[in-house]
Amino acid sequence: MQITETSAEGLRRDFKVVITAQDIESRVQTRLTEVGKTVKIPGFRPGKVPMPILKQRYGQSVMGEVLEEAVNDGAQKAVSENNLRPALQPKIEVLKFDPGQDLEFAVAVELLPEIEPADLSAVEIDKPVAPVADDAVTESLGRLAKGRRTTEKVEEDRAAVLGDILLINFDGSVDGEKRAGMNGEDYELELGSGSFIPGFEDQLVGAKADSDVTVKVTFPTEYHAAELAGREAIFEVRVKELRAGKDAEINDDLAKSFGFDDVDALKKAITERMEGEYGATSRLRAKRALLDKLAELHSFDVPAGMVDIEFEQIWKRLQDELARGGADAEDEGKDEEALKAEYRDIAVRRVRLGLLLSEIGRRNNISVSREELNQAMFDEVRRYPGQEQQVFDFFRKNPQAVESLRAPIYEDKVVDFILGTVKVNEVSVSVEELMRDPDEEEEAAA
Question: Is the pTM of this model over 0.85?
Answer without folding.
Answer: no
